[in-house]
Design goal:
Number of strands: 17
Length: 744
């Protein structure tokens, strides 16, 4: 009769733990830390025979050979006893084997190690991927990642043998993340692929292959600006931390993204071929450029004037996601095709950074700029606490040198300097751009700036001063129309696609014409399977039932959260109350629900209107969110207990001012205050019935019946509701519904 031997279960990732069957091996069983360390060492390379010298060098460095060997024998004995307490004297261990020239751990024994499970599922995923079974590979990769619960060998942070093993483990993790991101991209799940790359880059931010993938997947998701932003962030990190630059291959990908001509993705020229072409299922990178004919024409006309020696500055403004960068990049591509020299720089959202950073980035693309850039950098580093104008050489001379350099670069076919996200510009950058804008009127230089409307108050004074000198023209971008969205989807669809109008109406309704939202909703529909893609990577089918869902794609939610992240606490709290009220609200109700006076509330609302988050309607003191997704995202981020309390506050404010019972019922239901919710639902149903709004009355009676059971002693009320609903159904001559009502 066989002996039932307990199975070992071992965690090397995160907190080190060993279970013998259901029992956790405690500290007394180990006797000493070296016992645990010896087990970890053996487990890092299962079935590998570690020589005694290897083990001693790892665990007892600096100890005399004789003492170290004695310690090793004792520790091996303690380890065997901890793992197999019933092991007889002189009996062979099932797990820790002694064989020349030392010891090994038997990986074929009945033992489960999390690190081994990770590696096993990774190998199964790799095999599935190589055989073309992408879904199976994704599943196995995800299972493998489930074993990553912390740092590998976390309790041995400084031991050399553990550091080497940890580095091998980290490389396996990075390889897995890279392969998983590729599989997700091959299935068209670009948002998941992007998140996987970002997770891997948190482990190693210098891996260029991951930055390449991140750029590519952003591009395929229709996020050219985020793809270029990823490149610039990586290039800046290399320059600042290592004094290095991205590889020529990555720079080439950046150029291809700027030109919207990425081999393996875009259906244009295919030379040179990519080193490892991927047949991705679809791409939104070349989503048709629609709805901007007038603005594009104005920029092109201005470029012609610049080529004739009439330099100027154009500032493109609009809400987040409206397509400012896309318009600028499309125009700059046209300008480049006409022989114009194009330089690009971008401002970054951070409190501290070197002055003139976007200008320095742009000048880095110009030959023989090293001397100017070096002088500026040294000056800043030597005097970081002094304002730019107080630098030893003064700002004026630096501005003059920079402007002169740019003007000289424009002498042949002209030059366009593009600075993106101006709302985050440092003071020195604004000073220089102002200086330059006032001095290029007779030169072949075009300065193109973009900034977010919601953050324009910080730039308003700067822009007004330039406008007074007629040194800037502001171009405001509005949202796309339904016809624009229809044209956008038409270019992405096959000729046989019959549901174009339904898809366009849904995308337009949910995005309200915001181009970024529109592309994000389309990607979300594709990734959820609602929109089908054919072999030619065109939209070919639509599952219309999914269009009824009210969801926020991850990209839309992230952009909205970033917009709200700019608000102070008071403004956000007031907006949260407004989000609970609904898309539209009046000042009186907002004051009542928030407990504020009208003057105080209006003072807080005014900058929100200036930022474009809130819009005042034609009715006095009546406002609404500029986009319903702003309200939805804000509402969904409120924690449930707080949300219920806020609905109750709104309901109380409504009662004081008098309102429709249906609106009161809505807020009491969301507050889970069931009795007043029921009372107002009944009032709303009877009012609708009296106004011959039969369908509305039926709906209200149905909701009342859903919540009446939540109240004690409500049987009589339930009977009255059933009778009222049955009478209404009978009046409408709906026999099947009446039969069902009687049975209830």
């Amino acid at each position: 009769m066989g002996v039932n031997v307990a199975t070992l279960k071992i965690n090397l990732v995160g907190e080190f733990r060993v279970w013998r069957g259901e029992d956790l091996i405690g500290s007394r069983d180990w006797d000493r830390q070296k016992t645990r360390s010896l087990l970890k060492l053996l487990l890092t390379r299962p079935d590998h025979v570690f020589s005694k010298d290897e083990i001693i060098e790892a665990l007892w460095p600096g100890v005399s050979p004789k003492a170290a060997e004695r310690s090793l024998r004792v520790t091996v004995s303690l380890l065997r006893r901890a793992l197999e307490p019933d092991l007889g004297s002189g009996a062979g261990s099932r797990y820790v084997h002694q064989q020349r020239p030392g010891y090994s751990f038997n990986c074929r024994a009945d033992c489960e190690v999390d690190a081994w499970e990770f590696e096993k599922h990774q190998q199964e995923a790799d095999a599935a991927r190589k055989s073309g079974k992408v879904d199976d590979a994704i599943r196995e990769y995800r299972v493998a990642l489930g074993f990553v619960r912390g740092e590998f060998l976390a309790e041995e942070p400084y031991e050399e043998w553990a550091m080497a093993a940890r580095e091998r483990w980290r490389e396996r993790q990075l390889a897995l993340s890279s392969d998983l991101s590729e599989c997700l991209a091959l299935k068209g799940r670009y948002a998941d692929a992007i998140e996987t790359c970002k997770h891997a880059l948190a482990l190693d931010g210098y891996r260029e292959d991951l930055h390449r993938r991140l750029m590519l997947y952003h591009y395929c998701a229709g996020e050219q600006n985020l793809s270029l932003r990823a490149f610039r962030s990586y290039a800046r990190m290399l320059r600042e931390e290592l004094g290095a630059a991205p590889s020529a291959e990555l720079v080439r990908l950046k150029d291809q993204v700027e030109g919207r001509d990425v081999p393996g993705v875009d259906a244009r020229r295919r030379y040179p071929k990519p080193r490892r072409p991927l047949r991705l299922p679809y791409s939104l990178s070349r989503a048709h450029f629609v709805g901007r004919d007038g603005e594009y024409g104005l920029l092109a006309e201005r470029m012609r004037e610049v080529s004739a020696g009439n330099g100027s500055t154009i500032a493109v403004e609009g809400e987040a996601g409206i397509g400012k960068t896309r318009l600028a990049e499309e125009f700059l591509g046209y300008a480049h095709s006409r022989g114009v020299r194009v330089l690009r720089g971008r401002c970054y959202e951070r409190e501290l950074g070197p002055p003139l950073e976007p200008v320095m980035d742009a000048l880095g693309q110009v030959e023989n700029s090293a001397d100017i850039l070096s002088e500026m950098s040294e000056d800043y580093e030597q005097n970081p606490d002094r304002s730019w104008n107080d630098k030893p050489h003064g700002a004026a001379r630096v501005y003059q040198e920079l402007t002169g350099k740019l003007i000289r670069e424009s002498r042949d076919e002209g030059l366009a300097l593009f600075i993106d996200d101006l709302q985050w510009a440092d003071p020195a950058t604004l000073e220089f751009l102002s200086y330059m804008a006032k001095r290029i009127s007779g030169e072949r230089v075009l300065l193109v700036l973009t900034y977010r409307r919601e953050q324009s108050p910080e730039l308003s004074g700067w822009l007004e001063r330039l406008a007074e000198r007629r040194a800037v023209t502001t171009l405001s971008l509005d949202r796309l129309t339904l016809e624009d969205v229809n044209q956008l989807l038409l270019r992405l669809s096959s000729r046989s696609f019959a549901d174009l109008s339904s898809l366009a109406e849904f995308v337009y309704r949910e995005s309200e014409g915001n181009p970024f939202y529109a592309v994000e909703y389309l990607r979300w529909l594709i990734e959820s399977g609602a929109v089908e893609i054919d072999s030619r990577r065109r939209i070919s089918g639509l599952k219309s039932e999914v269009l009824l869902e009210n969801a926020l794609p991850s990209g839309v939610r992230a952009l909205i959260r970033a917009r709200f992240g700019e608000l102070n606490e008071d403004a956000r709290e007031l907006l949260e109350v407004a989000a609970v009220i609904g898309r539209s609200f009046d000042l009186g109700l907002l004051c009542g629900a928030a407990g504020l006076g009208e003057i105080e509330a209006f003072t807080k609302i005014k900058p929100l209107m200036g930022s474009g988050l809130i819009v005042e309607t034609s009715r006095e003191m009546k406002y609404h969110f500029s986009h319903d997704k702003l309200r939805q995202a804000l509402y969904e981020d409120i924690e449930s207990p707080q949300r219920r309390m806020m609905h109750l506050q709104v309901a109380k404010a409504l009662e004081e001012g008098g309102c429709e019972p249906a609106e009161l019922a809505h807020h009491y239901m969301r507050a889970e205050d069931w009795r007043p919710a029921l009372e107002n639902l009944v009032r709303a149903a009877r009012k609708a019935e009296g106004g011959h709004a039969w369908e509305t009355a039926l709906k209200d009676y149905g909701r009342a019946l859903e919540i009446v059971g939540k109240l004690p002693g409500s049987e009589e009320t339930r009977f009255d509701l059933l009778a009222a609903r049955e009478s209404l159904i009978e009046h409408l001559d709906r026999r099947e519904e009446r039969t069902a009502a009687v049975q209830v």
